[in-house]
Design a protein that fits this description.
By secondary structure, the chain is mostly helical. The chain is 69% helix and 0% strand.
Length: 382
């Protein structure tokens, strides 16, 4: 039977329609927040450099402001998706793959709060410290609720995740609450003593929760690698996620130890405790750094082995954000040990991470243009 011209025209219109940007936003997933998560991390990395040059903080400020702009754009785009395509919000939180990337929204917010402290607090009044303090407690509350509820959804989902499909992205739901310690390490030192202590205690509590859950996940992850081998080439960049928890814990415990008010409460009546705690913090950080280095080495070798076989996915941002934590942890340890060798090594790592950020940003842009992502069948919602 011959097709009518009207039917052919309708199919052609549908074909053209799916290429329109507004319709491509149907596939704008939570994983896009890996972009702001990584860009915010780069801004923090630039602020932590032990060897600086004139204009470095200006560059960091520009990157931080760019991160804020990108965050607003991403929030706008994903809101358009949810309003224009009813049902996509609910499905995004129940989808096996896409739902695992929801925490990247919270991680982006954690970087913004830390960036406010690093770039905003030195040039504004005390009002910003109050804002940061309020945002910290809101963030901690929301991140803990999300950690409980998202794992509950994963535990009760009709279609369960299997060990064979496991990647370190299973750690992501606990990641935001773990970064409470990182925010505390950055902000506590500028807060009044009574507020600094409560922020540090909360940061230490939830940093501990995060790293302990991550370690439990590591056991499953290693077992999966031993039984089923390495993930598919396209998924291997996500292996770097495992580098993050020990790294961020290492830098957080040193930062929180340094941020403790020396003449307040217990540390006021036991002044020697401050120095003892700082020594313990540094040694624990070195201990944890070694685990990050091991995961980094395995991930690097695995990705190098399949160069040329990996298609771009938003998980490529795992090349950046976890290694930001690894690099800052290295710099923090070197500064604490007063080791020029370690801090220069951290500076070299910083150059590589910034270079990787630029490379992934370029590849990301090219993938959008060539419809390799943000297109039907090519994203985390499929």
């Amino acid at each position: 039977m011959r097709r009518s011209p009207t039917a052919d025209q309708t199919e052609a219109e549908k074909g053209i329609s799916k290429y329109r940007l507004i319709n491509r936003l149907k596939h704008f997933t939570w994983a896009w927040y890996t972009l702001t998560m990584s860009t915010g991390g780069i801004a923090l990395l630039l602020a932590e450099q032990p060897h600086t040059f004139r204009g470095l903080m200006t560059i960091g400020t520009v990157v931080f402001i760019s991160d804020l702009v990108l965050f607003v754009l991403l929030c706008t785009a994903i809101s358009i998706r949810f309003f224009r395509f009813p049902g996509t919000f609910s499905s995004s939180l129940h989808h096996q793959t896409e739902s695992l990337f929801f925490p990247t929204l919270m991680l982006s917010i954690a970087n913004i709060i830390s960036g406010m402290q690093v770039y905003g607090a030195p040039v504004t009044g005390s009002w910003l410290l109050v804002v940061i303090r309020v945002l910290f407690w809101i963030y901690v509350t929301c991140a803990f609720l999300f950690a409980v509820l998202q794992y509950q959804l994963l535990f009760t989902a009709p279609k369960r995740l299997t060990i064979q499909s496991m990647t370190p992205s299973w750690i992501l739901p606990i990641f935001p609450i773990m970064l409470s310690g990182t925010i505390a390490s950055v902000s506590a030192g500028s807060q009044p003593p009574q507020h600094a202590m409560t922020i540090i205690i909360a940061g230490l509590t939830f940093q501990g929760l995060g790293i302990l859950v991550a370690i439990l996940m590591y056991a499953q992850y290693i077992g999966r690698l031993m039984q089923f081998g390495l993930p598919a080439p396209d998924l291997r960049p996500g292996m770097f996620i495992a580098v993050g928890p020990p790294s961020f814990t290492a830098l957080a415990i040193i930062g929180m130890a340094n941020g403790i008010p020396r003449n307040f409460g217990y540390f006021g009546s036991h002044p020697e405790a401050y120095n003892v705690l700082n020594i313990i913090a540094v040694f624990m950080a070195v201990f944890l750094w070694s685990l990050s280095f091991w995961f980094f080495s395995i991930s690097l070798v695995s990705c190098v082995a399949c160069i040329g076989k990996m298609r771009f996915h938003l998980s490529w941002w795992s090349f950046v954000f976890p290694n930001v934590g690894f690099t800052i942890a290295t710099i923090t340890i070197g500064t604490s040990l007063e080791s020029q060798s370690i801090t220069w090594f951290g500076t070299g790592m910083s150059v590589i991470v910034v270079g990787m950020w630029l490379f992934v940003l370029f590849t990301h842009s090219k993938a959008v243009y060539k419809r390799e992502i943000l297109f039907e069948g090519n994203d985390e919602d499929d």
